[in-house]
Amino acid sequence: MDLNNELKRINSVIDMEFKNIFKDKDVYQKRIIETIDYSLFTGGKRLRPIMAIKSYELFKDDIEEILPYAVAIEMIHTYSLIHDDLPSMDDDDFRRGKPTSHKVFGEAMAILAGDGLLNLAFETMADHIDKKAKTIEDYKKYTKAFKEISGYSGIYGMIGGQVVDLLATHNTMSEEKLLFMYKTKTAALIQSALVTGAIIGEASDIEVEAMREFGLNLGLAYQIRDDILDINQDKIIKKLTYLSFHDLDRAKIAVEEYSNKAMNSLKGLNNRNTDFFVALTEELISRDK
Amino acid sequence: MDLNNELKRINSVIDMEFKNIFKDKDVYQKRIIETIDYSLFTGGKRLRPIMAIKSYELFKDDIEEILPYAVAIEMIHTYSLIHDDLPSMDDDDFRRGKPTSHKVFGEAMAILAGDGLLNLAFETMADHIDKKAKTIEDYKKYTKAFKEISGYSGIYGMIGGQVVDLLATHNTMSEEKLLFMYKTKTAALIQSALVTGAIIGEASDIEVEAMREFGLNLGLAYQIRDDILDINQDKIIKKLTYLSFHDLDRAKIAVEEYSNKAMNSLKGLNNRNTDFFVALTEELISRDK
Known about the structure:
By secondary structure, the first copy, chain A, is mostly helical.
């Protein structure tokens, strides 16, 4: 399968969905719409919504149904980056080669744009459920997706990981705590996307759990691969990573182990064509940047 | 009716509900739970959740059903205050006589606590729907409430008002824009609470719209009363308020007019005992602080 073509195809669908979001741009508060737009269209890989859509496609065809949840997850990811980059957080001036939101629009507007995006993610889901649910089965699965997404992005999920990251010091960090941070800060939203795709695709409980397990291991492999790439950029000195606890060889083995576990989880999906996820996993763990 | 006793009674129910929220406090990220706790229990009047509960009680008795939505709305209100107080926003060191969140826990943690609270509001609703909805009618009304709440708190609601407030200058502010700001920044969450109470209480569409109209006018009366109180504290010079466009006499008349409109909206609720809302309106528009 041609991974890059597939990524491009799905990305253009996501672009279209994002462009349809704002009801009316000619409003008093249009500045926040410009601020949100800037971050949504700043060249992100859109891995999470792509994973949600491709997970859905393992089970069902009509991707209209998964799109609102896919873009909601990308909104949550995007808001977390805007807030992460703020001066009192990571204080980053650039992301993906472009000035960060607060450098362009000011700190206050960046905070509100992040808040607005998180809220918009839930508005998008609420709108979809209210408009599209017909049967009680529809309501059940949409509500389950809403619950999974809200859980993975909250204080027991992504935000929890950011708190641990924020408070991390060389004295208080343990390997166990680091793995908790990787599971929440990195794997959680990936799991959120994969599980949501499966739920909306009406996968069986066993298949949903297979995607959850796949996401966890892919997330960990992805993050440790990131740590390995960071070492080449001399970032390791100030950052606490997997390489604060292990040498490079062990880190490479860990990436292998987690990606093998991820691939194994895919075997829980009998008779589904998982070529895309196999190719994506191989791409993500061998990437050079 | 004894308004103060009733406010106290409902407030203690809300306190109990808040105390049950956190599943597990012995976690790596417990600092954010402490940060959130600090702001939830800092002596706010809890007007919005009280309004949600009392609106529900106009139509139904079992307040267990409205509580998750009532506390969700208070979480949204609380997160907006935490973010509003940040140095890049209003830069307030004190709220309700206590140091603001960022003064106690630092700016980064205050940002995350706000994000966490907004997210938690939606987690709380998702949990409730997933666990308690039995019939399709349950799903329909819970989803409608979720949609109303997410809309009123978003960029076309509360956040939209904050954007206008943030960008306000004496040159660009008009009375029309100011009223838009009051409707979104102040009235929206009040309407959100009242409408949600009515929807979950299975009010008729006409009754839901009566509560929406009541909330809009109460919100405007409340905000202009606030402006009048501000003038006595000499805050008026730097702030754009109703009194930037009108003299004190006109402002007092406006409070009267909006509160009369509010009272009139209550008449759309045939045979309901609206004593509480009449007493609350009278209290709010005549308050001295």
